[in-house]
Amino acid sequence: MKTKDQMLIKELEGDTLTPILIFQRLSGKKKFLLESSLKHERSGRFSIIGADPTFELIGEGNSSFVISGNEKEMIHEKPLEVLKKLLPEDHLHALEQFPFCGGAVGFIGYDVIRQYENIGEPPKDELKIPDVHLMFFEEAVVYDHLEQKVYLVAIPLKRKRMELEKRLEKRSAEIFNDFTNSNSGKAALSAFQASMSKENFIKKVKKAKEHILEGDIFQVVLSQRLQATLEGDPFEFYRKLRVKNPSPYMYYLDFEDYKIAGASPESLIKVNSNKVAINPIAGTRHRGKTETEDSDLEKDLLQDEKELAEHRMLLDLGRNDIGRVCEFGSIQIEKKMQIEKYKHVMHLVSEVSGKLKKPYSAIDALIACLPAGTVSGAPKIRAMEIINELEDVKRGVYSGAIGYFSANGNMDFALAIRTMLVKDQKAYIQAGAGIVHDSIPEKEYEETIHKLKSFLEEQDDITY
């Protein structure tokens, strides 16, 4: 077993293994799997798997709970402020080749913004899940797709070094054991039922347009939630999703009481070696059935003034967000309104970066960007107030952030869209549409349904 300062590393041959197989073989009730469809690029080279967290941080409003085994400590402080104390103050030394070497994995919900901005009383909370849920792992499995190698990595946060060495040996034995900790089988979804009627959604779009015409806002993103019954293992749904909907961010989080499965095209924020990066996505077309049709749709998107204006607005918003925590003069637009194509849709994508300013941390950068302009609108605070007025249910995970804080100071969070939450055999998905002054209400409703259908792929999965 190799060491690099505090970090423990055990290298395994990975030619007979897959991230799915490793996930199924690891023991532990609470687990995660982070993947990417970009396996042959730096950003998607690694899959990360973990099980059996050392402790957890749960945030509900301005209260936080740290759970370790059967112990539960309540702290009357904002969860992201508690998080700053739980992560190592001095970044632990780790090999730069690994994106994650131990740390916190989970989600930061949309409604965390209520702890920093007064946007009104929250609407009905149907799902009853935390605003923040992060699991802290001292060890993880890193699958290198380029080298076809598997690395067991660990950094001591609470456990002693000798105990971690034993845990890595145990993990190694599990990975090469034929037994899998999986319900394996099928996952069957009933037809999804929309949370509101088409007429009601259109009514809300018209109300949003009134705010725009009155000069309150330029844009607001209105969403709706759908619900279905899921029978079987939610992980089987994720396995189908990753094949049918390959995306830069693919994830499965098992919190025991509920599960999250998603395939998001968009990074909310990433921090690597003090470089902050965001990539706003705004502007969408479905993929063509032929190369010619695909090319025509791409040209149409690049010439659509409504889509271009919306993208420029969100690009400026993103630049302002990271400008709050980055050094003056360091903000750069590295990619501007380029087409990126996925299996079902194509998007206009940009990338903005800057250098993190002292004394700010990756957590501060995340707070500065929450929520993304692509799921709220502009100006952001007024848009969120209008969302609070018009949407009937608390958003929860949807339009928040899913990813990790690594013990070496790095961070990578996807925007939580195209994401399913499963709790008590009920599956929930949500999608939104950006409303501007010339929006056609019926088309905005259809956009939310189209986004959900592209996520589910099966055209008959939605009843409305």
TrEMBL record:
Pathway: Amino-acid biosynthesis; L-tryptophan biosynthesis; L-tryptophan from chorismate: step 1/5. Its EC number is 4.1.3.27. Keywords: Amino-acid biosynthesis, Aromatic amino acid biosynthesis, Lyase, Magnesium, Metal-binding, Tryptophan biosynthesis. It catalyses: chorismate + L-glutamine = anthranilate + pyruvate + L-glutamate + H(+). Coiled coil: none annotated. Its cofactor is Mg(2+). Residues 198-451 form the Chorismate-utilising enzyme C-terminal domain. The keyword Transcription does not apply. Residues 15-152 form the Anthranilate synthase component I N-terminal domain. The keyword Lyase applies. One of its GO terms (biological process) is L-tryptophan biosynthetic process. One of its GO terms (molecular function) is anthranilate synthase activity. Heterotetramer consisting of two non-identical subunits: a beta subunit (TrpG) and a large alpha subunit (TrpE). Belongs to the anthranilate synthase component I family. This is Anthranilate synthase component 1. It comes from Cytobacillus dafuensis.
